[in-house]
Write a structure and sequence with these properties.
5-stranded parallel sheet, single chain, Rossmann fold, Arc Repressor Mutant, subunit A, 2 domains, elongated, 5 strands, 9 helices, alpha/beta
């Protein structure tokens, strides 16, 4: 392995947040070998990780999308609030295009599959630390069939999960007015009149 990460300033700080301790420790070991200058901490609970992020301002947070008691999108939002300068990379066993799209709409800079080749994971993280865009596999959202943007697809996915307008707007860091505008456009494109009809129509058409 090996990566051209070219550190130029302070020691980069990374945190790994994953309740699967075996995977988290394995990922930490991989990064310690390939990014030896990085300081790496591992957390199995989001609340503890949020406290650490607020106190230390890590450069990158590697976040499992499915954690107990909190959705991936909510965790991304809380991390960005606790440490605005931290780049959030989702690393998940999920291959769902919806999870990918919602993650990026919520503010994640990359979405990596846990099944990815180790070299790809290291290179993606190193690219983010260099201030570059990570080259990762892109998930094609079914929403393309009705010409929904990433944000609108994220809104539709969140309301299908039972989130209120207020909760969805907070997760996606948008104003209530913009949320209403997105919903209005979703209703128009799906030819429906309300949230429940939108969710039903999206499921029937295989969008979510």
């Amino acid at each position: 392995m090996g990566s051209d990460y070219r550190w130029t300033e302070q020691v980069p700080k990374l945190i790994i947040i994953d309740d699967h301790k075996l995977f988290a420790s394995g990922l930490a070991g991989l990064l310690e070998d390939d990014l030896p200058e990085a300081a790496i901490e591992v957390y199995s609970e989001v609340e503890t990780a949020l406290e650490a992020a607020n106190a230390t301002g890590p450069d990158v947070a590697l976040l499992d999308y499915y954690l107990p008691g909190l959705s991936g999108a909510e965790a991304i939002g809380k991390l960005r609030e606790a440490s605005p300068g931290t780049k959030v990379i989702v690393i998940s066993a999920s291959l769902s295009p919806a999870d990918h799209q919602v993650s990026e709409a919520a503010g994640a800079v990359a979405f990596l599959a846990k099944a990815s080749d180790p070299d790809e994971v290291v290179e993606a993280i190193a690219a983010i630390l260099r201030g570059e865009r990570a080259e990762t596999a892109q998930s094609e959202a079914p929403a393309a069939a009705v010409d929904l943007t990433q944000k609108k697809f994220a809104v539709l996915t969140l309301i299908s999960q039972g989130k209120s307008n207020k909760e969805a707007s907070q997760i996606l860091s948008m104003s209530p007015e913009i949320m209403k505008s997105h919903l209005k456009e979703i209703f128009r494109r799906l030819d429906v009149a309300n949230r429940a009809e939108a969710v039903n129509a999206a499921r029937q058409r295989g969008i979510i």
